[in-house]
């Protein structure tokens, strides 16, 4: 299987397609082995789900993200699917979502972390991890923010997951605080601290 290197695709034979944006088929190669979406037809192929059984390996789950896409929403987008019926983006660009029964989590403290940047230090980009099953438009279970113009690794406070027993779906949404702000978020991960 090939690997992603920023905007280049590295093929199985080692050749590189430089500067060519990844298409959906190439992005799908990244997620080979991840279950196909069964929740909604509103999720594109690049936004696949993972269950806890195959998602959190050694305490890390990668939601993804994109360091070349500007987020401009002034509030978190509403909805529980990747796109709304009208085609508007809800979850962060090039991310996947996680199905999780917290009873299956390894003991420990979990945090949300990501690389973040914005086009001016006067602005802020914010990413939130949402329980899309119970409260897709309420307060996120974890939140991170940055005003870095060069890119900063930002980590949330400890996440309090819903009570164990039922599978919940989690996804990441992004917002900025100014109409002129261009926020980017990538390398979004759920990590176990201890």
Question: Brief overview, please?
Answer:
Helices cover 6% and strands 37% of the residues.
Structure explained in plain terms:
6% of the residues lie in helices and 37% in strands. By secondary structure, it is mainly beta. It folds into two domains: 30 residues, no CATH class; 157 residues, Jelly Rolls (Sandwich). The protein is globular, with a radius of gyration of 16 Å.
| Count of strand segments | 12
Strand content: 35-45%
Can you tell me the residue ranges where pLDDT is under 50 for at least 5 consecutive residues? Answer: 1-19, 26-54
The count of domains is 2
Strand order of the largest sheet: 4-6-11-8-9
Structure classification: mainly beta
* N→C terminal distance: 31 Å
How large is the count of helical segments? Answer: 2
- Rg (CA only): 16 Å
Task: Provide the helix percentage.
Answer: under 10%
Query: Main β-sheet, in a few words?
Result: 5 strands, mixed
Q: Which CATH C-level class of the largest domain is it?
A: Mainly Beta
The geometry reads as globular
Can you give the mean pLDDT? 77
Give the ordered list of helices and strands: EEEHEHEEEEEEEE
> What is the third-level CATH name, the topology of the largest domain?
Jelly Rolls
- Which architecture of the largest domain does the CATH hierarchy give at level 2? Sandwich
């Amino acid at each position: 299987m090939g690997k992603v290197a920023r905007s280049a695709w590295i093929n199985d034979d080692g050749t590189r397609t430089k500067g060519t944006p990844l298409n959906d088929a190439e992005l799908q190669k990244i997620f080979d082995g991840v279950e196909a979406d069964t929740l909604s037809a509103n999720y594109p192929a690049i936004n696949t789900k993972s269950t806890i059984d195959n998602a959190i390996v050694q305490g890390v789950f990668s939601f993804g993200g994109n360091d070349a896409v500007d987020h401009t929403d002034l509030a978190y987008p509403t909805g529980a699917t990747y796109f709304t019926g009208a085609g508007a983006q809800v979850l962060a660009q090039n991310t996947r979502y996680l199905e999780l029964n917290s009873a299956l989590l390894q003991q420990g403290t979990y945090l949300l972390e990501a690389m973040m940047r914005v086009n001016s230090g006067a602005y802020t980009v914010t990413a939130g991890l949402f329980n899309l099953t119970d409260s897709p438009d309420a307060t996120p279970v974890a939140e991170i923010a940055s005003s870095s113009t060069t890119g900063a690794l930002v980590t949330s406070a400890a996440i309090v997951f819903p009570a164990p027993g039922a599978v919940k779906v989690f996804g990441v949404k992004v917002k900025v605080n100014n109409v002129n702000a261009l926020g980017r978020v990538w390398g979004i991960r759920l990590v176990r601290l201890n």
